[in-house]
Amino acid sequence: MTISLKLSDAAEEIPVANSLHRRAPFMKSTLQPREPYPSLIKLELTETDTDLLIKDTLEALDNVGMFGYRLRGKRPDGSLKSDTGYLGMGLTYNPLHIDGIETDPHEQVQGNHFKHIKQEFGAKSGDGRVSPYSRMDQSEARKIAVRKDTHYDTYSMAFRTEGSKHGYLGTFLDSLKRSMVRSSLRIISSHGSTQAMGQKGAERATQRPGVAWHTDEMMFNNLRINIAIKTSKEFVLEQQTNVGKLIHLEAPYAYSWDTGIPHRAYCSERPEEPFFRTHIMLGVAPWFDFNEETQTWTQNEFYEKKHPWDMLCDGDIIPGAKLVRQD
Ligand SMILES: O=C(O)CCC(=O)C(=O)O
Ligand SMILES: [Fe+2]
């Protein structure tokens, strides 16, 4: 039987992907890829005009602007705190997002307004961001933050923003074979304010612009693909499987890794001139396809049959994406 679910029929107290999971448990699939992949998968985009993609992505960002990732707490003037070192612009949004009309649709990808969750659901913790993926938030707060139409309702953030339709960026995203979920342009600003990159000791004292240790959804739920658009050597990725190995992601390649394993991305050394490292951070649902007209998610032919990494390397997600073999 093919599972299908209309957004409006999904339960309110859990994200839409979890409602799908109740009917067809897929998030913790044990399906293995057909071959062992490196801890960082690098892909060449052989059917993409990458020069034009870079130009039009940067133009879209110029037109729309960027938003800081929301942080816990408030500024002295009462406004919600956000990070000036880790910025973004949404490529997808949810028209029914809990933030309503207060925020720009391009800002939804930048974390929750915990304020709303507090008002509507009576959460006890303070204002600001709460992340189910962060080890720094209490589990009760995390549970409340993860509902339908919140930041973490990945499968509701499946509608394309205006900014995502700009020029060849739009053409490229239209060409994807799978449905996009919570996707954004992610910018690390070399001269932005910094945050603690680690949880304790010297690590905690080390302040860098970027994103601290975290995990994301399992890849069967949300396969994340980073396309480096504008970058420079100081900007690095570090994975918990290889702490201390700082990896620079080169433009114009696409990368993917197991985001269920903690990782962080940051500016390791401040360049002389301010620099805005820009990646397209795509999220796709590998095993369910979204029909925007009927607002329905339906299981696709790959469900439990083909591993998301095999799909990625066969061009079942980005047409023409080819694995770059490294020694
Ligand atoms: O490079 C970045 O902006 C962060 C990437 C990341 O954490 C992810 O794609 O899961
Ligand atoms: Fe991540």
Characterization of this structure:
The chain has seven helices and 18 strands. With 327 residues, the protein is α+β, with helices and mostly antiparallel strands. The chain has one domain (4-29, 39-322). It has an eight-stranded antiparallel sheet with strand order 3-4-7-15-11-13-2-18. Strands 1-17-16 form a three-stranded antiparallel sheet, with no helix packed on it. It has a three-stranded antiparallel sheet with strand order 10-14-12, with no helix packed on it. A hairpin with a 5-residue loop joins β3 and β4. α2 crosses α5 (167-174). The longest helix has 15 residues, at 50-64. The radius of gyration is 19 Å and the shape is globular. It starts with a strand and ends with a strand. The model has no long low-confidence stretch (mean pLDDT 89).
In short:
This protein has 327 residues and is an alpha+beta fold. It has helices at residues 16-23, 50-64, 114-121, 139-145, 167-174, 201-205, 308-313; strands at residues 4-6, 41-45, 67-74, 80-90, 92-93, 159-160, 179-189, 195-196, 207-208, 210-214, 223-230, 235-239, 254-256, 263-267, 276-285, 288-291, 296-299, 321-323. Strand 3 and strand 4 form a beta hairpin.
